[in-house]
Amino acid sequence: MNHTLRFADAPARPDTAAPPVGTLSPPVPDHALTGVLRRFRVGPAAVTPVAEGLLNRGYRVESENGPYFLKCYVDSATSGRPAVAAQHRASTALAARGLPVAPPLPAVGGRTVVAHGGRLFALYPWVDGVHLHGTELDPAGCAALGSLLGLLHGTLAEVCPPVLQPAGQLSADPVETERLVRELRERARSARPRLPFDALAERRLTERLDLLDTHGHRRPAPEAVPPTGWTHGDFHGLNVLHRGGRVAAVLDWDKLGTRPTAEETVRAATLLFDDRRTGVLDLCRVRQWSRAYRATGAATAAELAAAAHRVWWERLNDLWMLQWHYQRGDHRADHLYPGSAGQLTWWCQEYEQVLDALTN
User: Thinking of the domain 134-169+217-359, which architecture would CATH place it in?
Assistant: First the structure.
């Protein structure tokens, strides 16, 4: 069944870096929205809030000139004016190169960022399409998506400032992870009322201690990091719209930044091609994705192997979902935890098979 979905930052499936603490700021008053739209030369319009992402607020705007998406930037970590302006420059340049990215529209004076009432806003054309999980794509669709990410990485390298390669990059410390695992396990044990989530967390945290004991010696060396470049930063199914068998738009460029590009490719594969209940990856689809990505010249098999090891290690040491739940009292990511924990256990068991799918 098709749905018409928004051009916006869909609820994120963060990986190892958790979004900022706190709740969204109060809704934007109607008179403020009217003032902002006037700056974008949009006259009388019906404005309807759309589902909120973790970082920003969004509104569907229906006007006589057509539908738009109005974005209100909320998160101060990624939404200061310089950061937003850089995101807009990059997405505009990508669209100019023919890639499926909807660029922000200019306001009066030509700028794409409007400040109003202490907040920043941007206006985009509305893009119709559907979100598809990677397991809903046929092999050709998996390859096309892999090629697209390779093209995005290559084009970002051309349109964004040059990147200075780091000498190395430290990975997570398993000693610190073990300390945190024990703290979280005690919180799960003492939770009252004790819910099924707490029982699952306790079991998986006990399992995590065993995994750390088994694999703790495999910590990646700082110099083993693959090349760093410009990345989308949050590439997964909820940030891609499909229409007519093609990608209509890659959404939500709020996390644009410099990171190991091959690591984004591996991370995206684990979010796109997983069974959302068990976390198990569809390795046939992963192979199609990776082969197409490598065919663009964006990474070598050796770089993807290094990236796979580093992403696996991050997951082995990653506890952000349980930190949200037990340390912050934030349950927004609870539904993601069973699949995430299941994927880690499965990945530890099938490490060589996952590596083979990503590199051959």
Answer: Alpha-Beta Complex (3.90)
